[in-house]
Each structure stands twice: as C-alpha cells, then as structure tokens.
Amino acid sequence: MGDHSKKILAMALLVGALLAPFVFFSTPMKAWENPHSALLVLQNAMYPIERLWQVAASGVSHTWQRYIGLSEAANQNLKLRSQLAAMQSRIMDYDEQVQETGRLRKLLGFSGRSDKRLIAAEVIGHNELGQFESIRITRGSSDGVRVGMPVVAADGVVGKVIRTGMHFSDVQLLVDHDFHLDVLLQRTRVRGVLSGAAHTHCTLQLHKRVEIRIGDTLITSGIVGGFPKGLPVGRVMRITYETDNVAQSVTVEPWVDHNRLEEVMIIFSPDPELEKIANAAGPKWLDEALNMQGR
Residue 262: which of 102, 90, 133 has the closest Cα? Predict the structure, then answer.
C-alpha cells in the first residue's frame, strides 16, 4: 500500500471515529432488539467512546459557559468599580464642601459677634518668612490691610499682620518667639503677657501666688495690641515653678492650630504701636530688618 493510500485510510478512520458517536447515538434501539445483533454489539463496543465524547462535550460546554460568565462578571466588576470611584469622588467633594461650609459659618458667626470691620482671607502658604513663624494670606494693601492688624479664626487668635503686598499679607503667628500678647485668665481675671515658644505652644510668666489651674482658658485683654477684648487665645497645659521660687511658668496651648488653617478673618483694628514703627521706618522696614538678621 502506497503512502497516499495510507493517508486516505488514516483520514477515513479519523472521520469515522469522529462521526461514529453521532451515528450510534442517534440510532434508535427497540426494546425487543436482538441482544446479539450486530448493531447492538457495535454500540456496546463504542460505548466508551460515546461516554468519553459526552464527558468531553460536557466539559467544553461547562468551560465555555464559565468563561462567558466570568467575562460578564469581569465587565460588571469593572463597571461597578468605575461607578464606585465616581461615587467616592462625589462623596469626597461633598465632604469637602460640608467642611468648608462649616468653617465659613463659624467665621461668619464670629464676624456677627464683632463690632469691628472684618474681611475674610484664605491661607495660601506657611513660613514664608524664615525668621518668623508665619502664614501668607490672600488679602493685601489693595484690600485695605495694614501692618499690625489682628488676624483671627473661628476658634480664636491667629496672629498679626507683619507685612503687606498688593494682594497678599504675611501674618506673624501667636506661637512665634517674638510674638507677645496681653491676656487675661478668664476664671480669675489676672493679667499677663503671653509669648510664643516651641512652634506649637506659648508661655506665660506669673507670680507664684497667682491661682491658676490646668485647663484654665486665656482670652485677650483688649488693652494693648489691637485685639478686641475677650477673644479666645488658649488653655493652660502645664505649670512649672522657677528655681527662684518666686515665679511660675505656664505652658499654653493655642486654641487655633495654624497647621490646619484654611480661612482667617482680618480685623480692621491695627496695633497703634506697631503702626508707628512701620510709619517711622518706612514701608520696607521689615525687609531690611530680615536682611540684617540673615547676615
């Protein structure tokens, strides 16, 4: 037998093997069929192939259905993830708007309690002046802001305008080591001068006989510095006694966390003393002082 004949025979056998299950599967058998008939014998012989074919066909069908199901699930998963991301973005925007609205309401509530003219500003920078603990805000001389004007937030005192540009101002913070503020102990009405210290706290020196407690609140005295009386300043955190046994050093935590400030209010009530210095020294007095310190 030649190679060509062998190829034809092999192809015929392969086709026959593939078609045989369909032929025998579809051949009807009668209940009274002779058990020794050639067709039945052949079907019995072909049963393993029939079973294998059924298992393979069932596996392929199940795999295909599972693939289709997984593809649909994957598409739905991607769609749900996209919708979830959009919803999360909207929720974040909503939360941000709620927080901003809350902050502005508190500022408006403060402005409603004050008889002074106020103007709102956004915080756009921190520590713009290397020698000072400061923030930069979005109001300047074009808005009528002048050196020495008090700056507050809804929670209390922030600091004081130390330099103005046309459309911005730098604010010296309450915690700056060169910042001093006349304050009252709200409970006992004792006066003292608060000084900035340690970037996050302030200190107050009092006579040892002054009654003071942890948690006491300090407010502005309204006597010097341009700040109206009664503004919240901070609370007493720690009390230590000096070695001379005459004074006590009080550590004060400001009510306002300047690291989280986003909006502030400027009070149009400049510090007269600081304004005198600025007027006498000229508009560039602070720049010249900073240059001298940097040498």
Answer: 102
Residue 259 DSSP label:
G
Strands 263-267 and 156-164: unpaired
Beta bridge partners of 254: 234
Inter-helix orientation angle 285-294/272-281, to 10°: 80
Taking the C-alpha atoms of residue 225 and residue 213, their distance in angstroms, rounded to an integer, is 26
- Please indicate, yes or no, whether the overall pTM of this predicted structure exceeds 0.70: no
- Beta carbons of 235 and 218 less than 8 angstroms apart: yes
On the question of pLDDT at 254 being above 50, the answer is yes
Burial profile 181-206: b = 16 or more Cβ within 10 angstroms, e = fewer: bbbbbeeeebebebbbbeeebbbbeb
Task: Report, in angstroms and rounded to the nearest whole number, the Rg of the chain calculated over CA atoms.
Answer: 43
**Segment 199-222, tens digit of pLDDT:** 889 999 998 889 999 999 999 998
Residues 36-48: pLDDT tens digits? 555 555 556 665 6
Residue 157: CB atoms within 10 Å: 27
- Closest of 264, 239, 265 to residue 252, by C-alpha: 239
